[in-house]
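Mods, move this if it's the wrong board.
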Amino acid sequence: MSIFKDDLLDGKVALVTGGGSGIGEGIAKALAAHGARIALCGRTLEKLERVAKDITDTTTGSPDETLPIACDVRQPDQVQAVMAAVKERFGRLDI
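Not the wrong board. Structure tokens:
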């Protein structure tokens, strides 16, 4: 349950680093629950894919609304690759 409207973030795109577990996972799921499309990045693709599937199963029903990408944010070239993938999939980044 949330005090915010369910569609508060409709049309927005959010990138969550560390989205494969813990606080990052919770943030990603909360943003998705309010309508945001989610790009998840972290070091372990399997964890990210699990969270993306959870989001798809519980909110959107469409795997096109999530994008799991393995990335070590300490590596600038990997961060640039994430940004390019987000732009290619969603056309924008808002959050």
